[in-house]
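Request:
Um, any thoughts?
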Amino acid sequence: MLFDIPDHSELYQALVNRDDRFDGQVFVCVATTGVFCRLTCPARKPKAENCTFQATAGACLAAGFRPCKRCHPLQTAAGADPLVSGLLARLDAQPDFRWTEQHLTALGYDLSTVRRAFKRALGMTFLEMARIQRLRRGFETLAGGGQVIAAQHDAGFDSASAFRDAFARLLGCAPNDLRRDGLLLADWVQTPLGDMVAVSSARQLHLLEFVERKALSRELDRLRNQAKGSLGIGPAAPTEQIRQELDAFFAGRDAVFRTPLAPGGSAFRQSVWDELRRIPAGETRTYAQIAERIGRPTATRAVAQANGANQIAIVIPCHRVLGADGSLTGYGGGLWRKQRLLEIECSYQTKKGKRPHDPG
C-alpha cells in the first residue's frame, strides 16, 4: 500500500493558515531561502511555486535544506527523545566537526540505539546527516570555482587526504583530478528526495544519480573513460535545465522532462529505456510487460538488467517498473524513494482529471 500525503495545494494552504494538523508530520522546503520549516512557522510565507513538502525532516536535510531558526523543525521531528535532541544540539554547535562512530562511543552512546533513534525520528542516521552536509559544502565550493584547499576547509576536513578519500568515495576520483575545462561536468543537484549528482556535456545530460547509490563511482569512472579523462566539475546548460524540470516535477507542476539525454548503452538497453519513458507518470509496468512491448517477450531478465543499469534516474523512470506480483522491486536509489516517487506521480493522474503528456 502506498501512503499518500495531501497534495501540494492542500499543504500550501495549511502553511498559509498555519494549520497544526500536519505539525511534525509534514515539512515545507523553500527553494529561495534553502530553509525548511514546520507548517506552523510564523515566518513570512513563500510563494507556492517555491515550496516542496516532505514527510520527514531527514528528507529535507538530505535534499540540502537547513532547519529554520524560527520554528526549529528538528526539535519537532526529534520529539521527546533526548538522545536525538542532544546530538542535534552538538551538530548545530559543531557543524564542521567530522563525526565518527568512535566519537559517539566516547560520548557514551550505543551505536545501534543512535542509529535506530535517528532513523525513526529523521529518516536518516546521525552520521549520514553530518557527512552529507559537509561534503555538499566542499562540492559546491569546487563547482563555484574555489580551490581544493578551500573546499576542504568548507567541508570541515582538517586532513587533505581524508577529504580526498571522502570525495573519491563519492565521485570515484580525487578533487585534483577534476578538470576545469572538462568535456563532461559534474554538479550537485538538490531534490526533495535527496541530493543527486548530475553529469552533463555542453548539450546533453549523461548521468543523474542519488549520491548514495553504490554504483555511482563506477558509473563516473565509465564516463571519465569515455571522455578520455576529461571530467570536470561545475555548471552546464543541461544540468541547469534538469534542475528546473525536477523542481517543477516535485512541485506537482509538470511530469515531462525535456532535457536532451545521452544515456549510452547497447541498442537493446536503449530500447528498454525508451519504453520506460513511454510509461505515463502515475502508471506502472512489469518487466514482462516491458519485454513484450519491445518485441522481446522472452527477455524479461535482460530487461531487468537494463532497468538496473539506467544511470539517469527519475527522467528515465525505472522506478515505474514493479515485480510480477505488483511488489516494489530493487531500486538503486532505495525502495523508500521508489515508493515516494510513485506516490508523487499518483497526483498527476488525478489532478484536474487529466493525465500528463506522454514524453515518448
User: Anything to note?
Assistant: Residues 91-177 form a domain with the Arc Repressor Mutant, subunit A fold (CATH 1.10.10.60). The beta strands are 27-30, 35-38, 51-54, 66-67, 184-189, 196-200, 205-210, 231-233, 285-286, 321-322. The first strand starts at residue 27 and ends at 30.
